[in-house]
Amino acid sequence: EGRATIVPGVLFIDEVHMLDMECFSFLNRALESDMAPVLVIATNRGIAKIRGTEYKSPHGIPLDLLDRLMIVSTVPYTAEETRKILSVRCEEEDVEMSDDALELLTRIGMETSLRYAMHMIMAASLVAEKRKSGEVEIEDVKRVYTLFVDVKRSAQFLMEYQEDYMFNELDREDDDSEDSSDSDSDSESGKDKGKEEAAMEEG
């Protein structure tokens, strides 16, 4: 229908499990062409449903397409690799960071996520700039760590204080409405049962 075209080269698709069956069928046919590009796809799913269907398959990819692929498994970054990545990111962001601060940031990246640690670089630079320093120190990284929480800490906070949030009140209302409907149905069934017993006595 002309909604998508394939050109020679390298086609990289991240989060490929987000594609639906129509997209997978298009890719499957395109790979049979003489002009087919080198296809590189990435996903972090295990056994998952193919989007838009009820079928489950490895990585959320149809088996006929999966059979055409060479699967490369990846492993988490080591502390040294994480440190190098963060160091390169500091250079790209034009941020001067002390070795101790970089070491702390590396540890944070290992405990939380590399993406979270990279987001902290510029924020820590702004904190250092506010205190008139041209280099990010440990105190700046700690300050940013207390200001911006990662996913794990946020989820833990919600679990501990879920009683204080509005969404919990909505859940309570739903539970109350279900309980009231159950009690109403029980009372109605009780009335019907009483009518049946009265009818039997009259008979």
What would you note in describing this structure?
Keywords: ATP-binding, Helicase, Hydrolase, Nucleotide-binding, Nucleus, Transcription, Transcription regulation. Residues 85-150 form the RuvB-like AAA-lid domain. Residues 171-187 have a biased composition (Acidic residues). Residues 1-79 form the TIP49 P-loop domain. Its EC number is 3.6.4.12. With 203 residues, this protein is mainly α. Among the domains are: 10-66, no CATH class; 79-153, Helicase, Ruva Protein, domain 3 (Orthogonal Bundle), CATH 1.10.8. The protein has helices at residues 21-30, 63-66, 79-92, 99-111, 114-130, 138-147, 151-160, 166-202, and strands spanning 10-13, 38-41, 47-49, 56-58. The strands form two sheets. It has a two-stranded parallel sheet with strand order 1-2. Strands 3-4 form a two-stranded antiparallel sheet. α1 (21-30) links the parallel β1 and β2 (38-41). The radius of gyration is 29 Å and the shape is elongated. Residues 198-203 have low confidence and may be disordered.
